């Protein structure tokens, strides 16, 4: 399918062919959900920890003798029923990451791209470059385009001036094409692809 291409000054710059095998797939929310959960699980630190009985400082002596006191038998003052004792089945340091098939990850990225196109929130730029590398200049151009929440995906190399200028603009993210991922695409309202990004993503996902 054909899609219009614009410049950063909102001028027409021709069109580009979008492959239906990438941008025309069925939008499946279940796939998007699986991929985002997989990404978030990989980001989760998993550093939560409580102390077991062997890690608590305290006496190892039996609190009182086993028989003859009329009380329930006890083996340690560090047991869970005592103040300052261990936590039973508490969290331990671990990785929350889980496996997700490559085909599902690939389909998830296709689905995210197709979802943005279906919502008319996909913009194709001629190039994403800034000669001045000034945040003020770029912010004015993006404001004129109406982009307050956008992810800009460039080719394999991001223009250094553009990336530097966009760094301090709230709601604007810039990624190279190899960093394109489902979570970042969905968390921003507008998806902006350069012509270079379109070519590389189609080659990568076909």
Cα distance spanning the termini: 15 Å
The number of domains:
2
Low-confidence residue ranges? none
Q: What is the helix/strand order?
A: EEHHHEHEHEHEH
Class derived from helix and strand content: alpha/beta
For the largest sheet, list the strands in their spatial order: 2-1-3-6-4-5
Proportion in β-strands:
5-15%
CATH fold descriptor of the largest domain: Ribosomal Protein L4, Chain: A
The number of E-state strands comes to 6
The CATH C-level name of the largest domain is Alpha Beta
Overall 3D shape: elongated
CATH architect. name of the largest domain: 3-Layer(aba) Sandwich
Explained architecture:
A hairpin with a 5-residue loop joins strand 1 (2-6) and strand 2 (12-17). A 6-stranded mixed sheet has the order 2-1-3-6-4-5. It has helices at residues 20-23, 29-43, 102-118, 135-145, 160-166, 182-187, 195-205; strands spanning 2-6, 12-17, 122-125, 150-153, 172-175, 190-194. It folds into 2 domains: 2-42 and 99-205, Ribosomal Protein L4, Chain: A; 50-90, no CATH class. The model has no long low-confidence stretch (mean pLDDT 94). The chain contains 7 helices and 6 strands. The chain has 206 residues and is of the alpha/beta class. The protein is elongated, with a radius of gyration of 27 Å. One of its GO terms (biological process) is translation. Residues 64-76 have a biased composition (Basic residues). Part of the 50S ribosomal subunit. This is Large ribosomal subunit protein uL4.
Topology (elements, then pairings):
Layout: E1 2-6, E2 12-17, H1 20-23, H2 29-43, H3 102-118, E3 122-125, H4 135-145, E4 150-153, H5 160-166, E5 172-175, H6 182-187, E6 190-194, H7 195-205
């Amino acid at each position: 399918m054909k899609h219009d291409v614009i410049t950063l000054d909102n001028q027409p710059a021709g069109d580009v062919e979008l492959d239906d095998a990438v941008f025309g797939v069925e939008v499946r929310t279940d796939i998007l959900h699986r991929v985002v959960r997989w990404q978030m699980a990989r980001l989760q630190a998993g550093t939560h920890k409580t102390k077991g009985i062997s890690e608590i400082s305290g006496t190892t002596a039996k609190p009182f003798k086993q028989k003859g006191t009329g009380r329930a038998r006890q083996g340690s003052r560090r047991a869970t029923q005592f103040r300052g004792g261990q936590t039973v089945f508490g969290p331990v340091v671990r990785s929350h990451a889980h496996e997700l098939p490559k085909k599902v990850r690939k389909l998830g990225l296709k689905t995210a791209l197709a979802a943005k196109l279906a919502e008319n929130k996909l913009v194709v730029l001629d190039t994403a470059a800034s000669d001045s590398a000034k945040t003020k200049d770029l912010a004015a151009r993006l404001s004129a385009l109406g982009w307050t929440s956008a992810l800009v995906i460039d080719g394999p190399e991001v223009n250094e001036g553009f990336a530097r200028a966009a760094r301090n603009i709230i709601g604007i993210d810039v990624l190279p094409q190899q960093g394109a991922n489902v979570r970042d695409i969905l968390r921003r309202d507008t998806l902006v692809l350069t012509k270079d990004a379109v070519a590389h993503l189609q080659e990568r996902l076909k």
